[in-house]
Write a structure and sequence with these properties.
The protein is of the alpha/beta class. Helix content is 34%, strand content 11%.
């Protein structure tokens, strides 16, 4: 089930043919089994993810759905603020930082019903190549003989390895497109401002673009229709 696209999961939810709690447990099991090796997730919010999946399942059983992403897990790049979830920007100085507010794009995903298993690992501020930073150890989705591409490769490896159905990241100078190519993922980087991104870590990232990381092109279009728009 966890290898399905966002659109496939959406159809199952709309048809009431899926148990969201059981789906979340499959993702949790996959993260426990493989993240220790790949290090794609920097902050795993297991308890919150599980509780919110149970709530989403109860809503679905009552005939309610928040939106087209109801109960579907989306992985968030650690450069993007999520309220009450540790967000370090890949920087040791922010290792204990927990934002009070969240990025507009995260709020739009949440309003559409998405669940967030955690924050994906990134190099420091997403700007450093993997080979230049000893602390960054996200491994390639293809195996240990390859490099993950640095930058925001956590979302690429996490989506490839079915830690979530899709992901969002912040692109600055190709730090999304490079690891996407290295790990065989689809990455849509729209024009600056096409997806509202504030607040994110602003020093040096004020002209960043929010990118959509998906398993196929059609999922990118599906998500774009949900999150696009200025603030």
């Amino acid at each position: 089930m966890i290898d399905k696209t966002v659109r496939e999961l959406n159809r199952l939810v709309e048809a009431r043919e899926i148990n969201i709690t059981e789906l979340a447990e499959q993702y949790i099991a996959e993260i426990h089994q493989h993240n220790g090796h790949y290090q794609a997730i920097a902050t795993f919010s297991e308890t919150s993810f599980r509780l919110l999946s149970e709530t989403a399942d109860q809503m679905l059983q009552s005939g309610e759905a928040r939106g087209p992403l109801h109960g579907i897990p989306i992985l968030i790049d650690d450069l993007i603020d999520v309220a009450n979830m540790r967000t370090s920007y890949g920087c040791e100085a922010y290792s204990d930082h927990v934002p009070d507010v969240e990025s507009i794009v995260v709020r739009r995903l949440r309003d559409a019903g998405a669940l967030f298993p955690g924050k994906a690992s990134t190099t420091e501020l997403g700007l450093i190549l993997e080979e230049e930073e000893d602390r960054f150890i996200c491994r390639s989705a293809w195996g240990d003989d390859f490099v993950s591409g640095g930058g925001t490769s956590g979302v690429m490896v996490g989506t490839f390895k079915n830690f979530a159905a899709a992901a969002i990241a912040v692109d600055v100078g190709g730090n999304v497109l490079l690891p996407a190519a290295f790990n065989g993922m689809f990455a849509l980087v729209p024009s600056y401002g096409r997806i509202a991104h504030t607040p994110i870590y602003s020093r040096g990232l004020m002209f960043a673009s929010v990118a959509l990381i998906t398993k196929d092109v059609a999922d990118s279009a599906f998500l774009m229709n949900i999150v696009a728009g200025h603030s």
